[in-house]
Amino acid sequence: MFRGKKYKDSAKQIDRAVQYEPADALGLVVKTAPAKFDETVEIHIKLGVDSRHADQQVRGAVVLPNGTGKTRRVLVFAKDAKVDEAKEAGADYVGGMDLVERITKENWFDFDVVVASPDMMGIVGRLGKVLGPKGLMPSPKAGTVTPNVGAAVKEIKAGKVEYRLDKTNIIHCPIGKVSFGAEKLQENMDTLLAALEHRMDYFAAHGCTVADHGLDNIVFRPADTAALDAILQKRLTGLTITEEELWQYKTALLLYFGRGYARRGWVMQLHFAAQRNNNTRMFRQLGPDTGYDSIGPAVNLPDLARLLDTLEAEEALPKTILYSLDPNDNAALVTLMGCYQGEGVRSKLQHGSAWWFNDCKDGMEAQLKGLAAGGVLGNFVGMLTDSRSFLSYTRHEYFRRILCGLLGRWVEEGQYPDDHPLLEEMVADICYRNSVSYFGFQHHHLRGYEK
Questions:
Q1: 448 by DSSP, 3-state: which?
Q2: Looking only at Cα atoms, what is the longest distance across the chain?
């Protein structure tokens, strides 16, 4: 791929083998900016949530201490005394139905932010179809639907930025201009990251204890901050990133979130080995995730071990459940998780229950036998489901019957003691009590948790 002289000169100043601290990385961003104009510096963060579900939305706003370096044009929908309040605060456009008509009839969008007082949302709602796709629709969560329109305008003019997940669960946000210098960019970045940490804390305060990552496989490729920023800029300009660059980005995100989960006591679930959208003709016709997926290649165990080991070395490895869609991975995952069990948590690393194509009698028995042979079956957290369908919950009863049948055969064959009270305790632990303790559901459990 052709690269210009300025790009090559900048690239020479970045050592891809070094993982830079944020302050050093921002210094390089400022130092290697080749453009004649004042370039915008952005931060892009992928979160371990699913934006399709309302309870996993991440959205908010924060005032950057040094602003964004851009003058934002603010349009305010208000009436009566609020009109003067908005104008005095510095709003560029203030009005009501006249602005609605101008937007709908003239396709006019010469503004960057829309603020509205609550009593104006009746007419603003008519613009939902045109403002919404452009990210301009005011909302209470973003602080742009408020009775204090003057204060809202002042915050926006001072450098308030809104962040929210896109469809790929990534947050994109500007943190300033190259001319700010590394120190001010660092202050802005720290403020935004603190706001995101606050959102994680918000989820935790409302009972969130688990984050789930679905990966086709894993390739562990650590990279420094400067290299990661270059990857993002490359993709944002429409260029195709390499497979190596993709995994550098994914590795950084897995490490970032793993550390965050560990600080909060959350559980990290990693699902591997799904090969998706195999039928290209049906993919073009119906889109993704429409029934044309299959079991994929086995888990890349050496690189999975490097991920776990990196977090463990930092004492930042969270409680983790490992799932593979390939049943041939069972024994390897059970032995690998045994290398990273920690104090204070029974079976800190778990081998996840059989799922998807293995969610059947043979698949469940294979997973249980593998765990019993190489791990501690009595500490298993049992069958889990992330489904929104109540019909899927019958799998828990199915799992209990399979577990009891397997234990019964082992008793008959003399492989397990014929001790009914002990067996009852074991089944109750696997099917309920272990998960309550492991996920921290003690405040929400039903009767029967206490032994």
A1: coil
A2: 86
